[in-house]
Design goal:
42% of the residues lie in helices and 13% in strands. With 373 residues, it is α/β, with parallel strands linked by helices. A 7-stranded mixed beta sheet has the order 2-8-7-6-5-3-4, sandwiched between helices. The protein has a 3-stranded antiparallel beta sheet with strand order 9-12-11. It has a two-stranded parallel sheet with strand order 1-10. β5 (158-164), α8 and β6 (192-196) form a beta-alpha-beta unit. α4 (66-80) runs parallel beside α10 (263-274). The longest helix is centred in the last third of the chain and has 23 residues, at 278-300. It is globular, with a radius of gyration of 20 Å. The termini are far apart.
Length: 373
């Protein structure tokens, strides 16, 4: 009888989804990483126009439409200080597929992938699916990843290390000095730096910096998406950019797994990236206000919370039983251990919800805090 592959048996359903599915239908969901804002009208209109005109009826290039890849190049030049050739960009089915094809193209069986712990749940799972060995490393007190810890973890078996800034689940933003160090480490140790920059537009203090800007070799690969910055999670449109030789290998995986990203989503993404950016600024301002409401409430409860400088997550240190007590009171939060061993004792709270909803959730959290102390 045909059994299941060892690779798929080594992974399980995300702890985030398990919590979400277990919650009641009327629960306040502060568990999923999804903006509650609408997709910009000009992006939706571009997709509708493409559908109505028939422009999106056929396959696009495996890499995506040239117009979209040119828009991605212009975005990086505008925001990040580097301009990849449009030929060195692949439009993907969200940032998730971009991460997947990057790891599939670079990780041999048994080779190690270093990533932050707590960190995004896909890093471990995608490493295992690629046949690699996960090497999670603990974070600093402020929940940023220490370049020195990354460099110390590198061995002859290391294939790649993952940088995520702003970070899921912590909301931490790496400094420019850190990013320069990550680029140096990739150059000097000849290992891949996989930079997950999906939340890069959502920064409240300081600026986002990409290691791609500082690298002297082609050992940096950048993953990004329209999902968070433009509230387009359901459109599933991301991208990966790297050197020509790395893109060619990733394209081999992408063309057989996906052929091309959804054509209507490509037209929407082109419009989002090229059109007015004030919608992003408005969303960032709203998230910052919500963050402050949440942090004030958690502080009133006596829960220590490193201040998130980006994304829309906070990770307070919580007492035993707190997550369960909060969920029992109708608010979905995610236990920190869902994001790795070093997430134990924390909870991830998404503040991608309105202020009134957050205030209602905070009341339930206060009750839970009193109940478990």
């Amino acid at each position: 009888m045909t059994e299941f592959s060892r690779r798929v048996e080594r992974i399980s359903i995300s702890g985030i989804r398990e919590v979400f599915e277990a919650a009641g239908a009327d629960a306040i969901n502060l568990g999923l990483g999804q903006p509650d804002f609408p997709t910009p009208e000009h992006a939706k209109r571009a997709a509708i126009d493409a559908i109505e005109s028939g422009a999106s009826d056929a396959y696009t290039s495996n890499k995506g439409t040239l117009a979209l890849r040119e828009a991605i190049t212009a975005k990086h030049e505008r925001d990040n200080g580097f301009a990849p050739d449009p030929g060195n960009v692949i439009a993907t089915a969200g940032g998730s597929e971009a991460l997947h094809i990057a790891l599939e193209a670079h990780v041999e069986d048994g080779r190690e992938v270093i990533y932050p712990d707590p960190g995004f749940v896909s890093y471990e799972a995608l490493t295992l699916l690629a046949g690699g060995t996960p090497r999670p490393i603990p974070l600093r007190e402020d929940l940023t990843m220490d370049p020195a810890a990354v460099e110390e973890a590198i061995t002859d078996d290391t294939a790649a290390f993952v940088v995520n800034s702003p970070a899921n689940p912590t909301g931490a933003v790496q400094s420019e000095a850190d990013m320069r160090e990550f680029a140096r480490i990739a150059d000097e140790h000849d290992v891949l730096c996989l930079s997950d920059e999906v939340y890069e537009r959502l920064v409240f203090e300081g600026e986002h910096h990409s290691p791609m800007r500082y690298a002297e070799t082609d050992n940096v690969v950048v993953v990004n998406a329209c999902s968070k910055a433009y509230s387009m999670t359901g459109w599933r449109l991301g991208w990966v950019t790297a050197s020509e030789r790395r893109i060619e290998r990733m394209l081999r995986v992408h063309q057989y797994a996906q052929a091309c990203a959804s054509a209507p989503a490509q037209f929407a993404a082109e419009a989002a990236l090229s059109g007015p950016q004030d919608v992003v600024d408005e969303m960032v301002a709203a998230f910052e206000e919500r963050r402050d409401v949440l942090l004030d409430g958690l502080e009133d409860m006596g829960l220590r919370t490193p201040t998130p400088q980006g994304a829309f997550y906070a990770m307070p240190e919580v007492p035993d039983g707190w997550v369960e007590a909060v969920i029992d009171r109708g608010v979905v939060v995610v236990p920190g251990e869902a994001f790795g061993e070093h997430g134990a004792g924390y909870a991830r709270i998404s503040y991608a919800a309105g202020v009134e909803t957050l205030q209602e959730a905070l009341e339930a959290m206060r009750e839970a805090t009193l109940a478990v102390r």
